[in-house]
Amino acid sequence: MQTISRLDALRNAVDGFKSGGKTLALVPTMGALHEGHLTLVREAKARADHVAVSIFVNPLQFAPGEDLDAYPRRLAQDAALLEAEGVDLLWAPTVDVMYPSGFATTVSVGGLDAVLCGAARPGHFDGVATVVGKLFNQVRPDIAVFGEKDWQQLAIIRRMARDLDLVAPHADAIVGVPTVREADGLAMSSRNQYLTAAQRAQAASLSRAMRHAIAQLQQGEVAGPVLAGLTAEIIAGGFASVDYADLRDAATLEAMDRLDGRAARLLVAARIGSARLIDNMPA
Ligand SMILES: Nc1ncnc2c1ncn2[C@@H]1O[C@H](COP(=O)(O)OP(=O)(O)OP(=O)(O)O)[C@@H](O)[C@H]1O
Ligand SMILES: CC(C)(CO)[C@@H](O)C(=O)[O-]
Ligand code: BAL
């Protein structure tokens, strides 16, 4: 595996991997890798000749007061995990390489970024879209693989990739991988390590409460009372607050009053200890 942190070296490496018509997949991450990330890597390997993983804790997507400084960073350990998975290229730029002095451009995906995490974290998705747009231009992948755990992020990246012609214009260029969970149902996340042992045990209540709400929706109950009950159950499970608990059209993220035959998604963000955890499931 080549580990690269400079743009000129990246360009040469990418040219090499793409030569002879070989395909290249990109898995963008912020590091502190877990089994969820490694599942994305395996999916990328199954779909392309070569796999690049990026590790970059992107300051642009953290608001002041969020956990940019606390976010776990362990490049050497991550590199060993990726090497063992047979990854070809680790792209690990510094902040100066990604955002040279005077950097002034923002990519903004209208509409989809106004709700859910976009409402709770103003500017967050501009930061995500900007860095992912740059990563696509830097690595020039044929496909890119993301987790469904960040469902809204996936929708925004799909929109941006189509709108800006960033990857090949086929439907499967942006691949979504189902959320990988711990044995007790908690979605794997680098931020789970902010939890104390007691909070970690309580955090399992989130996915249980979501499954309960989905069963109620599938019996024809309307969303309002079900979501109010879900919020109460999450708080009773030990969470301090719920940023949102919403039933949405899976593609457009429009709010839904009840299940109506469209592909739907139940999405939640809730805070426990110093962590803000997100989860979503098909409804
Ligand atoms: N449990 C998971 N299952 C599947 N994909 C995941 C999972 N967790 C993260 N991913 C995906 O990995 C990619 C990189 O995510 P990131 O590095 O932010 O990890 P994370 O664990 O989501 O961390 P965070 O605590 O920031 O949410 C994203 O596409 C994300 O959706
Ligand atoms: C896509 C991403 C790597 C952009 O920084 C990040 O938002 C993430 O890890 O999900
Ligand atoms: N996986 C989402 C990245 C973030 O919360 O900033």
Automatic annotation (TrEMBL):
HAMAP family: PanC
Pathway: Cofactor biosynthesis; (R)-pantothenate biosynthesis; (R)-pantothenate from (R)-pantoate and beta-alanine: step 1/1
Parts of the chain that traverse the membrane: none
Active site: H37
Transport among keywords: no
Cross-referenced Gene3D superfamilies: HUPs, Pantoate-beta-alanine ligase, C-terminal domain
Subunit composition and interactions: Homodimer.
PANTHER family named among the record's database cross-references: CYTIDYLATE KINASE/PANTOATE-BETA-ALANINE LIGASE, PANTOATE--BETA-ALANINE LIGASE
Pfam annotation, one family: Pantoate_ligase
Molecular function via GO: ligase activity
Keyword Repeat: no
Entry protein name: Pantothenate synthetase
